[in-house]
Amino acid sequence: MSSRTLDLVSPGAQLRPRPMIRRLRPTETIMRAVLLACGVVSIATTIGIVLVLGLESLAFFREVPLTDFLFSTTWQPRLGQFGIWPLLSATLMTTTFALLVSVPLGLAAAIYLSEYAHPRTRATLKPVLELLAGIPTVVYGFFALTFMTPLLQAIFGPQVQVYNTFSAGLVMGIMILPTIASMSEDALNAVPRALREASYGLGATRFETIAKVVVPAAFSGLVAAFLIGMARAVGETMIVALAAGAGPNMTLNPFEPAQTITGYIASISGGDISYDSLDYQSIFALGLFLFLFTLVLNLVSQWISRRFREVYQ
Amino acid sequence: MSAAPETAGGVIHDEAAYKRGLRLRTWRGTAWQNFFLLAIVAGIAALIALGFTVVNDAFGYVIATYETPAAELAPNGDLNGLSNAELAQILTEHTPSRLAVYIRDYLYSGDPAEFAKLPMSQALPGATLLPGAENRTVRELNDEQQAAILGDNLSQPVLVTIVEDNVVGESIYQTFSLTESLVNRAGIEAELASAPEGATLSFRSWVSLDFLLSPPSANPATTGARVALLGSLWVTALTILIAFPIGVGAAIYLEEYAAPTRFNRFIEINIRNLAGVPSIVYGILGLAVFVRALATFTGGRSILSAALTMSLLILPVVIINAQEAIRAVPLSLREASYGVGATKWQTIWRVVLRSATPGILTGVILAISRAIGETAPLLLVGASTFIVSDPSGLLSKFTVLPIQIYNYTARPQQPWRDAAAAAILVLLLVLLLFNATAIIMRQRARRRLSA
Question: Domain B226-450 is of which CATH architecture?
C-alpha cells in the first residue's frame, strides 16, 4: 500500500519521497494505547465498585449472618441487629409511589407528544418537561418538605407526619417523570407508521389506534422505560434523606416516617463514623444490595429494548 | 332504512345504534386526549409549583431584633465598607472578653482544650503576630494585641460575619413567606406588635450580594453561600479537568479504534451499566478508595477526593454523549482526510475532533451540570457541613452548594429554610448559566455543520 502511495509522487516534484515507512508512526501507537487506557478506566471503575463493595460486605457478613440480613425485620445497628426489611420496605414504598405518579403521567405525556402534538407545540413542551430532569435532587427534597408535605397535611389531615414516605415518593415521581416520558416517546416513535395507517384504514379512531396498535407494539420499550425509572427511584437519595424520615421503621403506613436504604447510608455518613465499626461496614452491604438491584433492572431493561429493536428493523 | 334489520350474526346494528357507538368512540377519544394533555400540564404545574415554593421562601418580611443595630457601627449600617482594622476595633469595643474565643474558633485548628496553654507561635503557626506576642499565650495578650491578630489574619468577610454575629446580634424572630407578605400585611403588623421590644419589620431578600459573599455562620440571618459556592467551583473545575480528557479519549477509542471484539463490546455495555448505577454507590466507592485507601495522596476528605469521585460518576455520561457527537461526524470527512494522506491519528485530531467539538462540549456541559447539583456522593466523601474558610487548594476541606442546601433544609426552623431557598436560587442560577452555554454551543455547532 505504501509503495503505491510513493508511485503517485511525481519524480520531478520538490518533495523527495521519504523512505518507505512500514511500521506505524510512534504517535499512532502511543495515542491508540492512551485512548484504550481511557476506555479501560470504566472497567476499572466497575472492578473498583465490585471489589470495594464485595470485600467490605464480606467483612460485614462475617459478623452478621446473611440470613439475618435478608430476612430479619429489625434494623438496630446499636443492638447489632441488621435486618434489611425496614429499610427495604421504605425503599419499595417510595419507589411504588414514585412509579404510580410517573408511569401514568410519563406515558400519557409521551403519547401526547408523539401522537397528538403539532411539531411546533412539541418543540416547546418537550424542553419544558426536560427542565424537570435538570433540577438537582436536593431541590426536590426541599420541595417535598416545604410544599408536598404541607399540601398532604391539608388534604389528609394531621395523620400525615412531617416526615413521611408518601410525600417523598410523590415528589420522586415528578423527578423521574421526564425520564419515563422521554424513553416512552422514543419507543412510540419507533413504531412504524404503516401500523398506524393500517389501523386508520380499518376505521379505528386515533385513540383506538394508540390503545390497540401503537402502545402494544411499543410495549417492550415502555417496559424498559418503566425499569429504568424504577432503578432511578430505588437509588434516589436526597429526596428521601430530607423528606422520608430519619429512623428505620417497619411500617406500611405511607403517612409515617421511615428510612430508606439510601436514606440510611446518607444519614450515617453525615456524622463522624468510625471506620472499624459494623455501622460503617453495613453501608457497603447496603451499597452492594443497591448496586445489584439496579444492575439487574438496567440489564433487563437493555435486554428488552435490544429485542424490541430487532423486531422493527 | 331506519328499520335496518339486524343480520344473522348481529354484526350490523341499526344505524341509530351505530351512530351512537361512533359518538361514544369519538367522545372517548377526546376524553383520553385531554387526559394525555393533562399529564403534560401536570408536569408543567409541578415545575411552576417548585419554582414558586423556592421564590416564596426566598423573599418576604422578617421580624428581627438587634443587640446593636449596624447603623450605630458603620455609616449607613454598611459593615462591608469597613477595613479590617476598623472591624477589629468594633470587636474590641463591644466584646473585649470574647476576642480570644474568636481567635480559637476562626484561626486555631488543634484541640480546643490545649489552646489557652500554647504560646501564639505554636497555636497559630504561620500567622502574622505583633512583635512580642509570639511567646505568650492568648491570656497573656491584651485586647489590642488580640484584636490585631484577628485583624491581620482573618479576611474581611469573615470579620464582618464575626461582627454581625456577636456585635450586631441580629436574631430573626419570625419570617413570612412572599405570599403572606403581599396578602396579609395587617396580620404581619399584628405579629410585630406582639414581638419583643425593639423588634423591626423589614422586607428581606434572602438571596443578596451579602449572602453570596459571606461565609456560613451559625445564625441564619448572617449566613452566606461564599464558601459553598467557591467549593462548588473548585470541585466542578477539577472534575472537568479529569473527566473531560478521559471521557473524550474513551469515546474516541470506542468510535474510531475499537473493532467489534468481545472485549470492546464489554467496555461498551459496561459504560451503559455504569451510567445506571445510583450516585450514592459512587459515593461509597469514593469513600473507600479516595478518602481512605489513597488518603496520603488525596488528603482524605478533600476537594481532590470529591472531584475524583464526581469524575467517575459523570464519566459514563460524558463518554456516551461524546460518542454521539463523534458518530455524527460524516464518514466522508474522514475519507477525505485519509485521501490526502493523513494518518489515523491526524485524521482524528484535525478532522473528526475539530468538527465534533461543539457537540462534545454540549454533552460534557450537560454532564457537568449534573455534577454541580449532585449531593449524595459528596455526603459520603465528606463535604464539611460547617466550614468558614475559603477552599485554598486541592487538599483543603470543602463544602458545596447542594450540601449546604441539604444542611439548611434539614433544620426545622423556618429562617434556615429561607436561607436554603436562597441557596437553591444561587444553585439554579449557576446551572442556568451552564445550560445556557450548552444551548449557545449547540446553536454554533448547527451553524457550522450547515455552513
Answer: Orthogonal Bundle (1.10)
Three-class SS of residue A192? coil
B60: part of which helix (H) or strand (E)?
strand B59-65
Which helix (H) or strand (E) segment holds residue A178: the answer is helix A165-189
pLDDT, position A110 = 95
- Give me the count of residues in chain B: 451
Domain ranges of chain B: 15-59, 64-210, 226-450
ipTM score for this prediction = 0.88
Cβ of A235 within 8 Å of Cβ of B35? The answer is no
Whether the CB-CB separation of B399 and B227 falls below 8 Å is answered with yes
Q: Considering only residues 76 to 95 of chain A, which have any Cβ-Cβ distance to chain B shorter than 8 Å?
A: none
Phi, psi dihedral angles at B60 (to 5 degrees): 150, 170
Contacts of B273 in chain A (CB under 8 A): 46, 295, 298-299, 302
Residue B36 to residues A109, A132, B24, B46, B404: CA-CA distances in angstroms?
6, 18, 18, 16, 38
Joined together, the cell numbers standing for residue B357 give: 467539538
| Beta-strand pair B59-65/B200-205 | antiparallel
**Residue A4 confidence (pLDDT):** 45
Cβ-based contacts of A43 with chain B (< 8 Å): 266-267, 270
Place of cell 403519547: A111
Burial class (CB in 10 A: 0-12, 13-18, 19+), B406: buried
- Chain B residue closest in CA terms to A227: B276
Q: Which residue of A has its CA nearest to B318?
A: A42
Q: What is the CATH number of domain A75-311?
A: 1.10.3720.10
Largest CA distance in chain B: 118
CB B239 within 8 Å of CB B310: yes
A105 CB near a chain B CB, below 8 Å? yes
* Residues 390-419 of chain B whose Cβ lies under 8 A from any Cβ of chain A: 402, 405-406, 409-410, 417
CB contact under 8 A, B280 and A207: no
Residue B122 grid cell: 505554636
The length of chain A is 313
> What whole-number distance in Å separates Cα of residue B150 and Cα of residue B54?
37
Backbone Cα Rg of chain B: 31
Q: List all residues 6 or more positions away from B313 whose beta carbon is below 8 Å from its beta carbon.
A: B279, B282, B371, B374, B377
Burial class of residue A310, CB neighbours in 10 A (0-12, 13-18, 19+): exposed
Task: Among A107, A138, A178, select the one facing B375 at the smallest CB separation.
Answer: A138
Q: Could you give the CA distance from residue B324 to residue B271 in angstroms, rounded to a whole number?
A: 14
- Sequential pLDDT tens for chain A (313 residues): 444 444 444 554 455 555 555 556 788 888 889 999 998 998 999 999 999 999 989 988 988 888 888 888 888 887 878 888 999 999 999 999 999 999 999 999 999 999 999 989 988 888 888 888 889 999 999 999 999 999 999 999 889 899 999 999 999 999 999 999 999 999 999 899 999 999 999 999 999 999 999 999 998 889 999 999 999 999 999 999 999 988 888 888 889 899 999 999 988 876 666 777 888 888 999 999 999 999 999 999 988 877 766 555 4
**Chain B residues near residue A132 by CB distance under 8 angstroms:** 43, 46-47
Cβ neighbours, 10 Å, residue B275: 17
B34 residue type, one letter: N
